[in-house]
Amino acid sequence: MINTQTIDAINTEFEALEPKQILKKVLAEIDNIAISFSGAEDVALVVMAWKLKKDIKVFSLDTGRLHPETMQFLERIRSEYNIDIEFLSPDAE
């Protein structure tokens, strides 16, 4: 289990691993994990996680300021990889 006492040991261990190895280990050790997805810079991580765990939880924060092109892009990734992206919005009040 990851907690504040093990952060240094985890950091040391992860320094020697490739990103895919790190992600595989994290997905195996943490049951309730989700990835934030906001645009093109996140595609590699989301797709890598999806290849390792088809039911990975993915969410995007929609603050009402996302460009239409960003929304179209997120939709394209959702349909191309059949990834369920949950959109979360702040309370308008």
Task: Quickly list its features.
single chain; 93 residues; alpha/beta; 3 strands; 47% helix; globular
Reconstruct the topology from this structure:
Elements: H1 7-15, H2 19-29, E1 34-36, H3 43-52, E2 57-61, H4 68-81, E3 85-88
Parallel strand pairs: 1-2, 2-3
Q: How many independent structural domains?
A: 2
Overall shape: globular
Point out poorly predicted stretches: none
- Please report the distance between the alpha carbons of the first and last residues: 37 Å
Q: Provide a count of the helices.
A: 4
Biggest sheet overview: 3 strands, parallel
User: Beta-sheet strand percentage?
Assistant: 5-15%
**Which whole number gives the mean pLDDT?**
89
Concise summary:
The chain is an alpha/beta fold. It contains four helices and three strands; from the N terminus they run ααβαβαβ. The chain folds into two domains: 1-30, no CATH class; 32-93.
Task: Describe this entry's structure for a reader.
This protein is α/β, with parallel strands linked by helices and 93 residues long. The protein has 2 domains: 1-30, no CATH class; 32-93. It is built from 4 helices and 3 strands. A 3-stranded parallel sheet has the order 1-2-3, with helices on one face. Strand 2, helix 4 (68-81) and strand 3 form a beta-alpha-beta unit. The model has no long low-confidence stretch (mean pLDDT 89).
